[in-house]
Specification:
The protein has about 400 residues and is an alpha/beta fold. Strands 1, 2, 3, 4, 5, 6, 7, 8 and 9 form a nine-stranded mixed β-sheet that branches. A six-stranded mixed β-sheet has the order 14-13-10-11-12-15, with helices on both faces. The longest helix is centred in the middle third of the chain and has 19 residues. Helix 3 crosses helix 4 and helix 8 packs across helix 9. It contains 15 helices and 15 strands. It is about 40% helix and about 20% strand. The site of adenosine-5'-triphosphate (ATP) has 20 residues, from helix 5, strand 11 and helix 12.
């Protein structure tokens, strides 16, 4: 089928009344960004949908990229036929029925809508004329009004007919950016990239904050986090990656804090630093990949002892999901295979063998107060690096890396 355009229907727009203009403006910008590799494409936002005129670009490739843009409910590939050319509409409808109802005994329906009421034929005339044409060519098919196998939609507008039969589910959610900006704490694990995807889905523009501890963690561990960011950036256009050197803090905590509280105090540092970065960069909230009860740091007591360092909203999109549910999403967004690659994370390396699963808040505060918190944090903040990551970026060297070879020797 030679499609000429793709029509995208907006998502939760009806509930957003006065924010309609922001929604459509953002969506238009995000679609433009996501489809920048198709130079001939022209994008025309309308009140209730977006028209993507292909101008020769490949419909499947365009739809593949469009399917990752949040704020779209459904989309349909469409064939535009000049208004003078009604015979051509019949041909296109037949081709669509042939594609959708290949087997004898299947059913179809022609469904016409007119926005140009001056056109000579009314909707019934068009349904009948096109339906008869298809039935003559395909006598093996039935016409079915209620639940046809193929429903061909013909829209009559002033300039042309628009014919379609496929309705493909979009990514849903809200256009990224319509809900403001937040920081996302990204490890190299399975959960935080999924949390990132879910935050983007609700329209939040996120920036990744990643802590790393060279030489305990290798360049590859850092690159893995960057490559995970590139995977998630497919849903955002691009994402800023903020790397925070964490070695000095981890070494200091390890030397000075009793083993049972190592993890709690480290996490308090991470969260406080993320919050400072958030304030500098004017974010409104912090997202992370914690899931209740999954590991020692994710009991409610532990979350309370860590969360104590800030009043900023901490959002945990996967808090109530089971691991298998999180993994299903990770596979869907193609981060799973990368997440399970065995590069060390700074938290795992400095993890005590038996962290307190029910840490006492007062004790965590006390142990931390013995450290030069402000100075340590200032030095970490002075060392942060920010880079913009795009979906097509690659960071991990393929095959065996020098670090991996070194590990084997
Ligand atoms: N090195 C890191 N840099 C930034 N954030 C981190 C880092 N390590 C952990 N976090 C944050 O803390 C959350 C909990 O991490 P933890 O290692 O306890 O759990 P996890 O279940 O392994 O999570 P994940 O699968 O996301 O690594 C992560 O989801 C992430 O948001």
């Amino acid at each position: 089928m030679q499609y000429t355009e793709v029509m995208a229907r907006y998502g939760e727009l009806s509930t957003k009344g006065k924010n309609r203009r922001d929604f459509i403006g953002r969506l238009n910008g995000n679609v433009t960004k996501a489809l920048r590799q198709f130079p001939a494409l022209s994008i025309k936002p309308k009140r209730d949908r977006l028209h993507l005129v292909l101008n020769g670009e490949n419909a499947d490739a365009v739809m593949n990229a469009l399917g990752k843009v949040f704020g779209i409910q459904t989309y349909s590939p469409v064939v535009r036929v000049a208004i003078e050319d009604f015979e051509q509409v019949k041909q296109v409808a037949l081709e669509m029925v042939n594609e959708g109802a290949s087997e004898a005994g299947m059913s179809f329906k022609i469904n016409t809508r007119r926005s140009d009421h001056n056109y000579a034929l009314d909707t019934n005339d068009i349904n009948l004329a096109v339906g008869d044409f298809v039935s003559e060519a395909r006598p093996d098919l039935k016409v079915e009004m209620k639940r046809p196998d193929v429903k061909v939609r013909i829209e009559v507008r002033r300039d042309a007919f628009y014919v379609s039969y496929l309705t493909i589910p979009g990514a849903l959610g809200l256009p990224v950016g319509t809900s403001g900006k937040a920081m996302l704490m990204l490890s190299g694990g399975i959960d935080s990239p999924v949390a990132a995807y879910l935050a983007l889905k609700r329209g939040v523009a996120i920036e990744m904050v990643h802590f790393f501890s060279p030489p305990y963690t290798t360049t590859n561990a850092l690159n893995k986090a960057k490559e995970l960011t590139a995977k998630v950036a497919a849903y955002a256009g691009s994402i800023n990656f903020i790397e925070v050197p964490f070695t000095e803090i981890q070494e200091t905590v390890k030397e000075n804090v009793p083993e049972g509280y190592l993890m709690t105090v480290q996490r308090r540092f991470m969260l406080r630093l993320t919050d400072k970065i958030r304030a500098q960069r004017e974010g409104l909230a912090i997202f992370n990949g914690e899931s209740v009860g999954q590991v020692a740091s994710q009991t409610l007591e532990s979350m309370a002892a860590i969360n104590d360092v800030t009043a900023t909203p901490i959002l945990r999109p996967v808090a109530t999901l089971d691991k298998t549910e999180i993994i299903d999403i990770a596979r869907e967004i193609d981060t799973f295979d990368l997440s399970v690659q065995p590069f060390e994370d700074c938290c795992t390396i400095f993890a005590p063998p038996q962290p307190k699963t029910h840490p006492n808040l007062e004790r965590a505060r006390y142990y931390e107060s013995q450290l030069a918190v402000t100075e340590l944090e200032d030095r970490a903040l002075a060392g942060i690096k920010v880079s913009k990551i795009y979906p097509e970026d690659k960071f991990l060297t393929r095959g065996m890396t020098s670090d991996q070879i070194a590990d084997l020797l």
